[in-house]
Design goal:
Helix 16 (about 340-350) runs parallel beside helix 19 (about 375-390). The chain has helices at about 5-15, 20-40, 45-60, 65-75, 90-100, 115, 120-125, 135-145, 160-170, 180-195, 220-230, 250-260, 295-300, 315-320, 320-325, 340-350, 350-355, 365-370, 375-390, 395-410, 410-415, 420-430, 450-460; strands at about 80-85, 105-110, 130-135, 200, 205-210, 215-220, 230-240, 240-245, 270, 285-290. The strands form two sheets. A six-stranded parallel β-sheet has the order 1-10-7-4-2-3, with helices on both faces. A four-stranded mixed β-sheet has the order 8-5-6-9, with helices on both faces. Helices cover about 55% and strands about 10% of the residues. By secondary structure, the chain is α/β, with parallel strands linked by helices.
C-alpha cells in the first residue's frame, strides 16, 4: 500500500516552497476574498442565518432515515427512479448498467464532486464510454489529465498563461489568446457534445425531501444543457445533501453562493423533479438519482463528528486555511481537500490511511469561523486525532514522545531532570530534520523560568 502520509509530507514540502504556485493561488484566493467580503456584507444578520442552517442540517442528520424515504417516494411519484449505492463500486456498476442497457456510447457531465469521489470518468472510459466534462474548469483539468484542485474552482492552480498554453497545444489557438477567446473556443468545442451525447450526468447541491426534487447551482449554464438534451439524466448525490423542504432553499442558496463565490445568487439555480412529463417538450425521457453512501453512514455513527456531514461544499474553509493556501489541493490526494476534507476523508476512506490529514492543520480556527453552516471544523480535527490514538494507529515513537511530554508536564521535577544542554542536544537530534528543516530551532535557556523568577525575587528581597 502506498505510504500516503509520507507522500503528503514530501509533496507539502515541495509545494510550500513553490513560489510560482503560491503566487497563482494567492492571487486567485485574493480575488475570492474580496468578492466574498462584498457578498457577505449584503446579507442581513448573517450569524442568525448560519445558526438556522446549522439547526436544519442537524435536524436532517437526526432524521435521515425518515427524510430519505420521503424524498424517494416523492421523486418516484413523478416518474423518477432512485438507486441506493452503499459504496463507489455499487454506484459505478449501477450507472454502467443504465448506460449499457440503453445502448449509450457517450456521456456529457456537469461539475460533480460525487462523480470524482467514485472515480466515474476513468471507469466509464475503461468500459468504452466516452465521457466529457462540460464545466470549463473541469474541462481544463480533464484535458491536463488531472483531478480538480478545489471543490468549487477546479483549475484554481492554473494561470491564464497556463490555460492559453494548453489550448495552443490541444487546439492550435494563439498563445496570446485572452480568457474570453479561450472561453469562446471551449464553448465551440462543447456545444455539439450537448446535442449528441446519449446520457447527461450531474451531481446536485441539494436533495429536497418534500418535493422529491434535486437542486443544482451553477454559473455557466452547462448543467442545464447537460440535463436537457440527453435522453437520460443520472444525478449522483451524497445522502447528506438532503434538506427537508423546498422553502429551505431561500436560506441555503444565498449562503452557498455568497460563501462559494461572493455572489448574491449564482447565475443558474435549477430544480429538477423527474423526467419529462407528458405535457412537457424539454427534458430527459428517463431520470435517475443515485443516493451515495460511500462511508457517510460511518461518519454519521460518530456522534461527535457527524457535523462533518452538514457541509454544503462552498469551499470557504479551503480558501481560509493557511495550510491549503501553501500546499494546494492536489497534495491531499483526496477528492475533498482542505479542512473539511481532512475531517471527513478519514471516516469515508479509512482512518489508518488518512489519519495524517487531521494533523495538517494549524488549528487557528479560521475554517470554523467562515463555515456557513457553523461546523466546528477545527474541533473535529482534534477528535479525529483522538480517534486515531484510541484505535492504536499511532506509531511507537509518537506514543513514547507524547508519554514523555505528558510526564514532563505533570511534574516540574521531571521537566527539570535534564539540563538545558541535554535538552538542546535532544532537540537537534530528533527535530533538526523535520521541524528544523526550514527554520531555526529554538534554544532552551540555561535556567528555567521558575528558577530565574526565584533567583530574581530572592535578590530583590535581600
Amino acid at each position: 500500500m502506498t505510504n500516503l502520509a509520507g507522500t503528503f509530507v514530501e509533496k507539502s514540502g515541495e509545494k510550500a516552497f513553490d513560489l510560482a504556485h503560491r503566487k497563482i493561488i494567492n492571487y486567485n484566493i485574493g480575488k475570492y476574498d474580496a468578492a466574498v467580503t462584498r457578498g457577505l456584507s449584503k446579507l442581513n444578520n448573517l450569524e442568525n442565518s448560519k445558526k438556522k442552517a446549522h439547526a436544519i442540517k442537524w435536524k436532517v442528520m437526526e432524521n435521515l432515515d425518515k427524510l430519505l424515504p420521503e424524498f424517494e417516494a416523492n421523486f418516484q411519484r413523478k416518474g423518477g427512479k432512485v438507486i441506493w449505492a452503499n459504496n463507489a463500486e455499487e454506484a459505478r456498476k449501477e450507472i454502467l448498467q443504465i448506460i449499457q442497457k440503453s445502448g449509450s456510447k457517450s456521456v456529457i457531465k456537469s461539475k460533480s464532486m460525487a462523480t470524482e469521489e467514485i472515480h466515474l470518468n476513468e471507469f466509464l472510459e475503461k468500459n468504452g464510454v466516452e465521457t466529457l466534462e462540460s464545466d470549463l474548469g473541469e474541462y481544463i483539468v480533464q484535458l491536463l489529465g488531472q483531478k480538480p484542485y478545489h471543490i468549487v474552482t477546479p483549475a484554481m492552480h492554473l494561470s491564464k498563461e497556463d490555460i492559453a498554453q494548453l489550448f495552443h497545444e490541444k487546439f492550435g489557438t494563439p498563445l496570446e489568446s485572452s480568457p474570453e477567446e479561450l472561453t469562446q473556443k471551449a464553448r465551440e468545442l462543447l456545444r455539439e457534445k450537448y446535442t449528441t451525447a446519449d446520457v447527461g450526468i450531474t451531481g446536485a447541491n441539494f436533495l429536497i425531501a418534500d418535493s422529491g426534487s434535486i437542486a443544482i447551482t451553477e454559473n455557466e449554464g452547462n448543467a442545464r444543457l447537460t440535463t436537457t438534451f440527453p435522453k437520460i439524466h443520472i444525478a449522483i448525490v451524497g445522502i447528506e445533501k438532503l434538506i427537508p423542504s423546498i422553502s429551505d432553499l431561500d436560506l441555503f442558496w444565498p449562503l452557498l453562493s455568497s460563501h462559494g463565490t461572493g455572489q448574491n445568487l449564482t447565475v443558474y439555480n435549477t430544480i429538477l423533479g423527474g423526467p419529462k412529463q407528458a405535457n412537457e417538450s424539454d427534458g430527459p425521457e428517463e431520470m435517475y438519482v443515485v443516493l451515495l453512501d460511500n462511508g457517510r453512514t460511518d461518519l454519521l455513527a460518530h456522534k461527535d463528528q457527524r457535523q462533518g456531514l452538514y457541509c454544503i461544499r462552498c469551499g470557504a474553509c479551503l480558501n481560509a486555511c493557511p495550510i491549503y493556501k501553501n500546499i494546494g489541493g492536489h497534495t491531499y490526494e483526496t477528492t475533498y481537500s482542505g479542512p473539511i476534507g481532512s475531517v471527513i476523508t478519514p471516516h469515508m476512506e479509512g482512518m489508518q490511511t488518512f489519519k495524517h490529514l487531521s494533523y495538517a492543520s494549524s488549528l487557528c480556527g479560521k475554517c470554523t469561523e467562515v463555515c456557513p453552516v457553523k461546523i466546528d471544523i477545527h474541533k473535529m480535527l482534534l477528535l479525529n486525532r483522538r480517534d486515531a490514538v484510541k484505535e492504536g494507529l499511532s506509531n511507537k515513537i509518537e506514543s513514547w514522545g507524547w508519554f514523555a511530554w505528558k510526564k514532563g508536564m505533570e511534574k516540574r521535577k521531571f521537566m527539570e531532570f535534564l539540563s538545558s544542554k541535554w535538552k538542546n542536544n535532544l532537540m537537534k537530534r530528533f527535530f533538526s530534520k523535520s521541524w528544523g528543516k526550514h527554520r531555526e530551532l529554538p534554544e532552551v535557556a540555561p535556567q528555567s523560568f521558575s528558577k530565574q523568577w526565584i533567583a530574581e525575587h530572592t535578590e530583590e528581597k535581600s
